[in-house]
Amino acid sequence: MDIVWEAEASRSIVTPEQRAGLEQRLVERIRGIADRSVQSEYFNELIWNRLRKRRRNSAAKGAPSALRSTGDVDQMLIRRAEVLLATLINHPQLIGEEAESLANLELPTPELDRFRQEILNIINSYPDLDGALLDRHLRKTGLAEKLTGILRAGLYDLWPFAGPEAELGAARVGWKHMVALVHRGRMEREADAALREFQMAMTPENWARVEGLRQQIRQNEADHADDDAAWPAPAPESGRLPH
Asked: 161-217, pLDDT tens digit by residue?
């Protein structure tokens, strides 16, 4: 295993394309092993352990060391959803523009998803929705306590575009940036699930699904590379990643 790993992973691996190429080469070598049990052992160690560790280390450069435990990931997903909802609640002019995008979002908790659905419900009835009407509607539907939690000042300190004082143009750019992050996270989770399926059955069809999802992630990164470079990252809160 060490010889195979050194032969492939000792090259310069910097770009997403190079990382994808490393994964492809390792899989091709592993699939050439005739014994399925040995093949599985190589896959577990080289793909599931070493390659994933390298990918995590690459993603963590420059980030706080307390990185992405399960709890941190869950909190990160919830925080992104709250930022998106706060942006719309404080800038209801965006709801009509982004109704289709909002309808396609997958939010991480039933309560947050209920916010999403209630916002869609009221925009269908009131196309010229303003902030006061939206606020009354959400409170009347039993979401008052959660609404207060979402519209907290600390959120705006980290993501000022979501706040009521932000200009509409800044809110629009921030919304699109955060939606891209949410979609990227969803694709990464789907790719991880597909990788686990491939581990169980190393068929060309299962590998094609992994590769297809990886390609979508790379395309998403390329499409939003300028956004990521230009958008100022908020300061971490309580040792967690900002997004």
From this structure: 988 889 999 999 988 888 888 888 788 888 888 888 887 888 888 888 888 888 888
pLDDT, tens only, 115-126: 888 888 888 777
Residue with tokens 């435990």: 69
pTM: predicted TM-score of the whole model, two decimal places: 0.60
